[in-house]
Amino acid sequence: xxxxxxxxxxxxxxxxxxxxxxxxxxxxxxxxxxxxxxxxxxxxxxxxxxxxxxxxxxxxxxxxxxxxxxxxxxxxxxxxxxxxxxxxxxxxxxxxxxxxxxxxxxxxxxxxxxxxxxxxxxxxxxxxxxxxxxxxxxxxxxxxxxxxxxxxxxxxxxxxxxxxxxxx
Length: 168
Ligand code: FES
Hints:
The chain has 168 residues and is of the alpha+beta class. The chain contains seven helices and four strands, in the order H-H-H-H-E-H-H-E-E-E-H. The protein has helices at residues 15-23, 30-41, 49-56, 60-69, 89-93, 96-107, 150-164, and strands at residues 81-86, 121-126, 138-140, 143-145.
């Protein structure tokens, strides 16, 4: 994401301002507003940086810095199928790296890479999902799965893809 103003067509020009006005209530922190925007849209559009800066009395660089500092915030919509694989110690000891290689080969995607606008699958590394005793663990579209094997992943991916009608 850059600090340049995105170009919006006239019909969308006021949307970021309205979005920010809805969520930037007096006394609300920038983090709370960012969470609210992401909860509503699934991401924080770059076009909201300038209105957020005005509403929160911050510089655009400060708003941009917070959005990019926290891995949780996205600046573009997620792919229809999002896989979050735990890469922390307990899962590593139970084979999550081999599972990661399988997932990358199966999906033809890379973990933590920039996903293409039209990508159907997005792979993200996370660090502990609270399922250490049931490693390796991952989430697909927000649903937690434990003791995941390559075969189990393939079945989960097929089910998730069917739900969102994509072909993987
Ligand atoms: S280390 Fe993977 S769930 Fe805790």
